[in-house]
């Protein structure tokens, strides 16, 4: 009997402690009601409650949460049915408003998202819808912000995951996309061929220009070299003539300084002729007038006269 009483006491104490002491984890908060009326919030850490009088209505997770909106079939402005998948990222910033402002804020967020999505897509054509994910997400977020502000919920981000048109339209779009890609490939190929031809022509042009410039430069250098060679040759000849003239001038000057006149020179010349005429096969013919002229030179005249007599 004593053991039963002790067990009951332990259970009562355990229940009393569990109802009195509340430990709240980080990034979580509890809404406490006292006698059915909002009393306070339980913050992270150790909290003490009055058993039976105080009651934790709900615990909220203050971290960013995500809610998937089921795929919705909506009709575009040009009467095409498309299926859109959306995901919402939200955060509870007012636990009291999130508890008493709406019964289920996640459900409310999904419904507002669906309704807003239908309104937005109904004003857009298919092509605009397929390429306007960012606009759709932005418009849905604006609509959700206006509605969820009083619920203590802040919408962090809205993402349109997928937009699926009907299969026949998707097939037509695939064919159109393939045709566009083929067209783009043909255009790019033609553009590449055009660029190739332009580059080849430009290269050929540059090559010819460089070759012509090279030939021109070579001819100029060749002509310049020939001109310089001719100038040097003429200069050499002029210097040679000048040297010969200077030598002749010097020789005459030396002869004059030695006192040699024309008669002495004639005598030396005929001495040389005499030596030449000593050969058995050599004969020297001297004009008579020359002998007369030389006759005026004493012994020379006698020499030539004796030779003439021997003949």
UniProtKB/TrEMBL annotation:
Gene3D superfamilies: Band 7 domain (3.30.479.30). The chain crosses the membrane at residues 6-24. Keywords: Membrane, Transmembrane, Transmembrane helix. Residues 19-177 form the Band domain. The keyword Membrane applies. GO terms for cellular component: plasma membrane; side of membrane. SUPFAM superfamilies: Band 7/SPFH domain. Pfam families: Band_7. InterPro entries: Band7/mec-2_domain, Band_7, Band_7/SPFH_dom_sf, Stomatin_HflK_fam. Belongs to the band 7/mec-2 family. This is SPFH/Band 7/PHB domain protein. The lineage of its organism: Bacteria, Bacillati, Bacillota, Bacilli, Bacillales.
